[in-house]
Amino acid sequence: MNGTIEHVQAAAFDLDGTLCDSLPDLAAAANAMRASLDLPPLPQPTVESYVGDGIAVLVHRALTGNVDGRAEEKLWAQGFTLFVQYYAEHIADRTRAYPETEAGLGLLKSLGIPLAVITNKNEVLAVKLLEALGLSDYFSLVLGGDSLPEKKPSPAPLLHAAEVLGVPVENMIMVGDSRNDILAAKAAGCPSIGVTFGYGDMAELSKHEATRPDWTIGSLPEIYENLRPQREEKEKAV
């Protein structure tokens, strides 16, 4: 990450692929659903390519075996129920926060910056996962894909988060691993930070202006390290 970030008053984070690696449990839920419907299992890399647009879309993709697929409505409803039931019971069996997630969040909290999670995962499941990982106390706000009428890549969740946190949206950073995160940030008018350790191909996204983040990082503590003006102000006050 090159250069300092100035005037940051809030930080919003994606969840899956940004704060934690949830792919093993998502893949297990998808394959448990498929097994209940007498369908063969999907390889984990295939499920990975389906993640990022919320569980409703993931179920369509997992049922059809196609990233653009849409299952018949009755089958989808059955699959969605099976997926959510299994996933809710096994949400953190193998899901783990990335190694430096807590360190990075703690450093930002030490500056008095309010933090939010903006994910396309259902809100109830997002809250449950954050609690299971011991991360919920870091966040003042959690918005899921079903919290508002629109989800990422719409700017609506980011604009809503900035309003709730009481900060100008241009002074809130959005941290994520996918095109949805970058597109939402650009549409909302807030700075975007892409993580290189998540599910999205940040190198590929950075090749295109529409999906190029303002900064990229290899770990969350890098955000704090580049908030130089605010760090110096805090250090002077100590």
TrEMBL record:
Known role: Specifically catalyzes the dephosphorylation of 2-phosphoglycolate. Is involved in the dissimilation of the intracellular 2-phosphoglycolate formed during the DNA repair of 3'-phosphoglycolate ends, a major class of DNA lesions induced by oxidative stress.
GO MF term set: metal ion binding; phosphoglycolate phosphatase activity
Binding site for Mg(2+): D14, D16, D177
One GO-annotated biological process of the protein: glycolate biosynthetic process
UniProt key word Magnesium: yes
Record's keyword terms, sorted: Carbohydrate metabolism, Hydrolase, Magnesium, Metal-binding
Cofactor needs: Mg(2+)
Protein's recorded name: Phosphoglycolate phosphatase
Reactions that this protein is recorded to catalyse: 2-phosphoglycolate + H2O = glycolate + phosphate
Ranges in a coiled coil: none
Pathway membership: Organic acid metabolism; glycolate biosynthesis; glycolate from 2-phosphoglycolate: step 1/1
EC number in record: 3.1.3.18
Family listed: Belongs to the HAD-like hydrolase superfamily. CbbY/CbbZ/Gph/YieH family.
Active-site residues from the entry: D14
Organism expressing this protein natively: Neisseria elongata
UniProt cross-references to CDD domains, sorted A to Z: HAD_PGPase (cd16417)
Source taxonomy: Bacteria, Pseudomonadati, Pseudomonadota, Betaproteobacteria, Neisseriales
Cellular component aspect of the GO annotation: cytosol
